[in-house]
Protein backbone atom coordinates (compact mmCIF):
# COMPACT_ATOMS: atom_id res chain seq x y z
CA UNK A 1 0.00 0.00 0.00
CA UNK A 2 3.00 2.30 0.50
CA UNK A 3 3.66 2.23 -3.25
CA UNK A 4 0.04 3.11 -4.05
CA UNK A 5 0.15 5.97 -1.54
CA UNK A 6 3.43 7.25 -3.01
CA UNK A 7 1.97 7.16 -6.53
CA UNK A 8 -1.16 9.01 -5.39
CA UNK A 9 0.88 11.67 -3.56
CA UNK A 10 3.04 12.26 -6.65
CA UNK A 11 -0.06 12.64 -8.81
CA UNK A 12 -1.64 15.21 -6.50
CA UNK A 13 1.65 17.10 -6.02
CA UNK A 14 1.87 17.46 -9.82
CA UNK A 15 -1.55 19.16 -9.78
CA UNK A 16 -0.61 21.36 -6.82
CA UNK A 17 2.64 22.39 -8.52
CA UNK A 18 0.81 23.32 -11.73
CA UNK A 19 -1.80 25.33 -9.85
CA UNK A 20 0.71 27.19 -7.66
CA UNK A 21 3.19 27.79 -10.50
CA UNK A 22 0.67 29.68 -12.62
CA UNK A 23 0.00 32.08 -9.74
CA UNK A 24 3.75 32.62 -9.30
CA UNK A 25 4.32 33.74 -12.88
CA UNK A 26 5.49 30.43 -14.37
CA UNK A 27 4.43 29.30 -17.84
CA UNK A 28 2.42 26.04 -17.69
CA UNK A 29 3.16 25.36 -21.37
CA UNK A 30 6.94 25.64 -20.90
CA UNK A 31 6.82 23.55 -17.73
CA UNK A 32 4.73 20.87 -19.42
CA UNK A 33 7.10 20.79 -22.40
CA UNK A 34 10.26 20.34 -20.31
CA UNK A 35 8.54 17.86 -18.02
CA UNK A 36 8.71 15.36 -20.90
CA UNK A 37 12.49 15.75 -21.15
CA UNK A 38 13.16 14.41 -17.64
CA UNK A 39 10.26 11.93 -17.93
CA UNK A 40 11.79 10.50 -21.14
CA UNK A 41 15.23 10.03 -19.58
CA UNK A 42 13.82 8.48 -16.40
CA UNK A 43 11.51 6.21 -18.39
CA UNK A 44 14.41 4.86 -20.45
CA UNK A 45 16.58 4.39 -17.35
CA UNK A 46 13.86 2.79 -15.19
CA UNK A 47 11.98 0.55 -17.62
CA UNK A 48 14.84 -0.12 -20.10
CA UNK A 49 12.57 -0.51 -23.14
CA UNK A 50 13.58 -2.90 -25.90
CA UNK A 51 14.54 -0.53 -28.74
CA UNK A 52 15.02 -3.51 -31.06
CA UNK A 53 11.23 -3.55 -31.45
CA UNK A 54 11.44 -0.24 -33.33
CA UNK A 55 10.86 -0.45 -37.07
CA UNK A 56 10.32 2.16 -39.77
CA UNK A 57 7.56 0.09 -41.32
CA UNK A 58 5.97 -1.86 -38.46
CA UNK A 59 5.97 0.72 -35.64
CA UNK A 60 2.61 2.61 -35.58
CA UNK A 61 4.19 6.05 -35.92
CA UNK A 62 0.89 7.83 -36.61
CA UNK A 63 -0.54 6.56 -33.32
CA UNK A 64 2.64 7.54 -31.49
CA UNK A 65 2.42 10.98 -33.08
CA UNK A 66 -1.23 11.29 -32.05
CA UNK A 67 -0.31 10.42 -28.49
CA UNK A 68 2.60 12.86 -28.63
CA UNK A 69 0.15 15.63 -29.52
CA UNK A 70 -2.50 14.55 -27.02
CA UNK A 71 -0.20 14.24 -24.01
CA UNK A 72 0.89 17.90 -23.75
CA UNK A 73 -2.51 19.13 -24.97
CA UNK A 74 -4.45 17.28 -22.25
CA UNK A 75 -1.80 18.21 -19.68
CA UNK A 76 -2.39 21.86 -20.63
CA UNK A 77 -6.16 21.32 -20.30
CA UNK A 78 -5.44 19.93 -16.83
CA UNK A 79 -3.50 23.08 -15.92
CA UNK A 80 -6.35 25.26 -17.20
CA UNK A 81 -8.94 23.21 -15.30
CA UNK A 82 -6.91 23.56 -12.10
CA UNK A 83 -7.00 27.34 -12.49
CA UNK A 84 -10.65 27.72 -13.50
CA UNK A 85 -12.38 24.84 -11.71
CA UNK A 86 -10.00 24.01 -8.85
CA UNK A 87 -8.01 20.95 -7.83
CA UNK A 88 -10.96 19.28 -6.10
CA UNK A 89 -13.15 18.94 -9.21
CA UNK A 90 -10.24 18.45 -11.60
CA UNK A 91 -8.88 15.41 -9.77
CA UNK A 92 -12.32 13.79 -9.74
CA UNK A 93 -12.84 14.44 -13.47
CA UNK A 94 -9.34 13.15 -14.29
CA UNK A 95 -9.74 9.92 -12.33
CA UNK A 96 -13.24 9.22 -13.63
CA UNK A 97 -11.97 9.31 -17.22
CA UNK A 98 -11.65 5.57 -16.65
CA UNK A 99 -15.40 5.17 -17.17
CA UNK A 100 -15.12 6.54 -20.71
CA UNK A 101 -12.10 4.40 -21.57
CA UNK A 102 -13.87 1.30 -20.24
CA UNK A 103 -16.95 2.16 -22.30
CA UNK A 104 -14.74 2.53 -25.37
CA UNK A 105 -13.15 -0.83 -24.55
CA UNK A 106 -16.58 -2.45 -24.81
CA UNK A 107 -17.16 -1.16 -28.34
CA UNK A 108 -13.57 -1.21 -29.67
CA UNK A 109 -11.93 -4.17 -27.93
CA UNK A 110 -15.11 -6.22 -27.33
CA UNK A 111 -14.39 -6.56 -23.63
CA UNK A 112 -17.01 -8.46 -21.66
CA UNK A 113 -19.05 -6.44 -19.16
CA UNK A 114 -20.66 -7.84 -16.05
CA UNK A 115 -23.46 -6.04 -14.21
CA UNK A 116 -21.07 -4.59 -11.61
CA UNK A 117 -18.94 -2.93 -14.29
CA UNK A 118 -22.06 -1.45 -15.92
CA UNK A 119 -23.17 -0.05 -12.55
CA UNK A 120 -19.68 1.38 -11.96
CA UNK A 121 -19.65 3.11 -15.35
CA UNK A 122 -23.16 4.52 -14.85
CA UNK A 123 -22.23 5.87 -11.41
CA UNK A 124 -19.01 7.33 -12.78
CA UNK A 125 -20.82 9.20 -15.55
CA UNK A 126 -23.37 10.45 -13.00
CA UNK A 127 -20.50 11.63 -10.79
CA UNK A 128 -18.90 13.62 -13.60
CA UNK A 129 -22.26 15.18 -14.51
CA UNK A 130 -22.65 16.25 -10.86
CA UNK A 131 -19.18 17.83 -10.92
CA UNK A 132 -19.93 19.68 -14.16
CA UNK A 133 -23.33 20.77 -12.79
CA UNK A 134 -21.69 22.13 -9.64
CA UNK A 135 -19.56 24.42 -11.82
CA UNK A 136 -22.42 25.82 -13.83
CA UNK A 137 -22.87 29.57 -14.04
CA UNK A 138 -23.18 32.45 -16.40
CA UNK A 139 -19.68 33.87 -15.95
CA UNK A 140 -17.00 33.23 -18.56
CA UNK A 141 -14.77 31.72 -15.86
CA UNK A 142 -17.44 29.17 -14.88
CA UNK A 143 -18.07 28.25 -18.52
CA UNK A 144 -14.33 27.87 -19.11
CA UNK A 145 -14.10 25.67 -16.01
CA UNK A 146 -16.83 23.36 -17.29
CA UNK A 147 -15.18 23.16 -20.70
CA UNK A 148 -11.74 22.30 -19.33
CA UNK A 149 -13.16 19.74 -16.89
CA UNK A 150 -14.92 18.03 -19.80
CA UNK A 151 -11.75 18.16 -21.93
CA UNK A 152 -9.72 16.59 -19.10
CA UNK A 153 -12.32 13.84 -18.69
CA UNK A 154 -12.47 13.02 -22.40
CA UNK A 155 -8.78 13.65 -23.09
CA UNK A 156 -7.39 11.25 -20.52
CA UNK A 157 -9.85 8.57 -21.65
CA UNK A 158 -8.72 9.02 -25.27
CA UNK A 159 -5.06 8.69 -24.28
CA UNK A 160 -5.87 5.52 -22.35
CA UNK A 161 -7.70 4.00 -25.34
CA UNK A 162 -4.94 4.88 -27.82
CA UNK A 163 -2.25 3.59 -25.46
CA UNK A 164 -4.11 0.31 -25.03
CA UNK A 165 -4.61 -0.02 -28.78
CA UNK A 166 -0.94 0.72 -29.52
CA UNK A 167 0.37 -1.82 -27.00
CA UNK A 168 -2.14 -4.29 -28.37
CA UNK A 169 -0.29 -4.14 -31.68
CA UNK A 170 2.71 -5.84 -30.06
CA UNK A 171 4.82 -2.97 -28.75
CA UNK A 172 5.77 -3.23 -25.09
CA UNK A 173 4.34 -0.66 -22.70
CA UNK A 174 7.74 0.79 -21.77
CA UNK A 175 8.68 1.46 -25.40
CA UNK A 176 5.35 3.11 -26.22
CA UNK A 177 5.60 5.26 -23.09
CA UNK A 178 9.13 6.36 -23.97
CA UNK A 179 8.19 7.17 -27.56
CA UNK A 180 5.17 9.15 -26.32
CA UNK A 181 7.31 11.22 -23.97
CA UNK A 182 9.98 11.91 -26.60
CA UNK A 183 7.41 12.84 -29.23
CA UNK A 184 5.51 15.08 -26.78
CA UNK A 185 8.76 16.85 -25.82
CA UNK A 186 9.86 17.47 -29.42
CA UNK A 187 6.44 18.71 -30.57
CA UNK A 188 5.72 20.95 -27.58
CA UNK A 189 9.24 22.39 -27.56
CA UNK A 190 8.94 23.06 -31.29
CA UNK A 191 5.71 24.94 -30.64
CA UNK A 192 7.39 27.07 -27.95
CA UNK A 193 10.30 27.85 -30.29
CA UNK A 194 7.93 28.97 -33.03
CA UNK A 195 5.77 31.05 -30.68
CA UNK A 196 8.43 32.59 -28.42
CA UNK A 197 11.70 32.14 -30.37
CA UNK A 198 13.32 30.60 -27.28
CA UNK A 199 13.67 27.29 -25.43
CA UNK A 200 11.89 28.75 -22.40
CA UNK A 201 13.09 30.68 -19.37
CA UNK A 202 15.45 29.11 -16.86
CA UNK A 203 12.92 28.97 -14.04
CA UNK A 204 10.34 27.29 -16.27
CA UNK A 205 12.87 24.72 -17.51
CA UNK A 206 13.89 23.82 -13.94
CA UNK A 207 10.27 23.68 -12.77
CA UNK A 208 9.38 21.56 -15.79
CA UNK A 209 12.17 19.07 -15.13
CA UNK A 210 11.00 18.74 -11.51
CA UNK A 211 7.42 18.31 -12.75
CA UNK A 212 8.62 15.53 -15.07
CA UNK A 213 10.32 13.72 -12.18
CA UNK A 214 7.09 13.79 -10.17
CA UNK A 215 5.03 12.83 -13.21
CA UNK A 216 7.25 9.84 -13.91
CA UNK A 217 7.45 8.87 -10.23
CA UNK A 218 3.67 8.61 -10.23
CA UNK A 219 3.83 6.15 -13.16
CA UNK A 220 6.79 4.20 -11.76
CA UNK A 221 5.25 3.72 -8.32
CA UNK A 222 1.92 2.73 -9.87
CA UNK A 223 3.53 0.13 -12.15
CA UNK A 224 5.66 -1.17 -9.27
CA UNK A 225 2.53 -1.47 -7.11
CA UNK A 226 0.93 -3.60 -9.81
CA UNK A 227 4.05 -5.79 -9.88
CA UNK A 228 4.10 -6.13 -6.09
CA UNK A 229 0.38 -6.90 -5.96
CA UNK A 230 0.12 -8.79 -9.24
CA UNK A 231 -2.58 -11.05 -7.82
CA UNK A 232 -4.67 -8.07 -6.66
CA UNK A 233 -4.89 -5.57 -9.55
CA UNK A 234 -8.28 -4.38 -8.29
CA UNK A 235 -6.70 -3.22 -5.02
CA UNK A 236 -4.12 -1.16 -6.90
CA UNK A 237 -6.72 0.27 -9.29
CA UNK A 238 -9.20 1.23 -6.56
CA UNK A 239 -6.54 2.35 -4.08
CA UNK A 240 -4.84 4.65 -6.56
CA UNK A 241 -7.97 6.32 -7.91
CA UNK A 242 -9.70 6.74 -4.54
CA UNK A 243 -6.56 8.04 -2.83
CA UNK A 244 -5.92 10.60 -5.58
CA UNK A 245 -9.50 11.85 -5.36
CA UNK A 246 -9.42 12.05 -1.55
CA UNK A 247 -6.00 13.75 -1.47
CA UNK A 248 -7.14 16.14 -4.19
CA UNK A 249 -10.24 17.05 -2.20
CA UNK A 250 -8.19 17.57 0.98
CA UNK A 251 -5.68 19.74 -0.91
CA UNK A 252 -8.45 21.85 -2.41
CA UNK A 253 -10.18 22.38 0.93
CA UNK A 254 -7.08 23.02 3.06
CA UNK A 255 -4.55 24.70 0.76
CA UNK A 256 -6.72 26.53 -1.76
CA UNK A 257 -9.85 27.14 0.36
CA UNK A 258 -12.14 25.61 -2.26
CA UNK A 259 -15.74 24.99 -1.27
CA UNK A 260 -17.40 21.58 -1.35
CA UNK A 261 -20.80 22.27 -2.87
CA UNK A 262 -23.62 19.74 -2.32
CA UNK A 263 -23.54 18.59 -5.96
CA UNK A 264 -19.74 18.26 -5.77
CA UNK A 265 -20.06 16.20 -2.60
CA UNK A 266 -22.61 13.95 -4.31
CA UNK A 267 -20.28 13.59 -7.29
CA UNK A 268 -17.40 12.74 -4.96
CA UNK A 269 -19.44 10.03 -3.25
CA UNK A 270 -20.68 8.59 -6.53
CA UNK A 271 -17.15 8.66 -7.92
CA UNK A 272 -15.71 6.68 -5.02
CA UNK A 273 -18.52 4.10 -5.22
CA UNK A 274 -17.98 3.92 -9.00
CA UNK A 275 -14.27 3.14 -8.59
CA UNK A 276 -15.05 0.49 -5.95
CA UNK A 277 -17.62 -1.16 -8.25
CA UNK A 278 -15.15 -1.21 -11.16
CA UNK A 279 -12.44 -2.62 -8.90
CA UNK A 280 -14.69 -5.43 -7.67
CA UNK A 281 -15.77 -6.06 -11.28
CA UNK A 282 -12.13 -6.85 -12.09
CA UNK A 283 -12.23 -9.77 -9.67
CA UNK A 284 -15.69 -11.02 -10.61
TrEMBL record:
Q: Where in the cell is it found?
A: Membrane
UniProtKB keywords = Membrane, Transmembrane, Transmembrane helix
The answer to whether UniProt assigns keyword Transmembrane to this entry is: yes
In this chain the EamA domain maps to: 3-132, 144-278
Q: Matching Gene3D superfamilies, A to Z? A: 1.10.3730.20
**Main location per the UniProt record:** membrane
| Superkingdom of the organism of origin | Bacteria
Q: Does the keyword Transcription regulation apply?
A: no
Annotated GO CC locations: membrane
Where are its TM segments located?
Answer: 6-22, 59-80, 92-109, 115-133, 145-163, 169-193, 205-223, 235-256, 263-282
**Membrane topology note:** Multi-pass membrane protein
Q: Which family does it belong to?
A: Belongs to the EamA transporter family.
PANTHER family to which the protein is assigned, alphabetical: EAMA DOMAIN-CONTAINING PROTEIN (PTHR32322:SF2), INNER MEMBRANE TRANSPORTER (PTHR32322)
Task: Output this protein's name.
Answer: EamA domain-containing protein
Amino acid sequence: MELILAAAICSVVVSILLKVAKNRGYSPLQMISWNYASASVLCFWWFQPNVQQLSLTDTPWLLILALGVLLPSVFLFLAKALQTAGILKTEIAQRLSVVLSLTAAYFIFQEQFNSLKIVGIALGIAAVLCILYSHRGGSSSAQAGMLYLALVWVGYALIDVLLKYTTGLGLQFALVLNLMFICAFILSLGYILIQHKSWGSGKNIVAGLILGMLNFANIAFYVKAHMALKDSPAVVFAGMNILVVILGVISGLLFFKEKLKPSTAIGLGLGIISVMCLAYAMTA
